[in-house]
Design goal:
Blueprint (H helix, E strand, L loop, with lengths): L7 H14 L2 H9 L5 E2 H8 L3 H13 L3 E6 L2 E6 L3 H27 L2
Length: 112
């Protein structure tokens, strides 16, 4: 298979998106946004953080281009910009499940 000849800026953008995904609370927020747009006031208690912390977490996702906002009066609603991000999260979980299964196999082999 031929190696892609990407400009280094593509790798930098890719890394920025991966970094934005690399926090458990941000991943949980994205999962909650599967249900549709929500405000910080609804997301924060479900994620288990303060509203100000939730706003910071969402700001990272917004800068990475993963979420958009809509203002209604004083309330800002967040929604996922591209629902393909859910496919990425799902594929990552499949990889994690495979890794955990492999570790369980290793643990079983050790206990024999």
């Amino acid at each position: 298979m031929r190696r892609p000849d990407y400009d280094d800026r593509i790798y930098q953008l890719h890394a920025a998106v991966c970094k934005a995904l690399g926090h458990p609370a941000r991943m949980k927020a994205l999962d909650l946004l599967r249900e549709g747009e929500q405000c910080v006031c609804r997301l924060a208690p479900q994620v288990g953080v303060t509203e100000s912390h939730m706003s910071q977490l969402l700001a990272v996702l917004r800068r990475a281009g993963l979420v958009d906002t809509r203002r209604d009066g004083h309330t800002i609603y967040y929604r996922v910009r591209d629902e393909r991000v859910f496919e990425v999260l799902d594929h990552m979980r499949e990889i994690l499940a495979d890794q955990l299964a492999h570790l369980e196999d290793l643990a079983a082999a050790l206990s024999r």
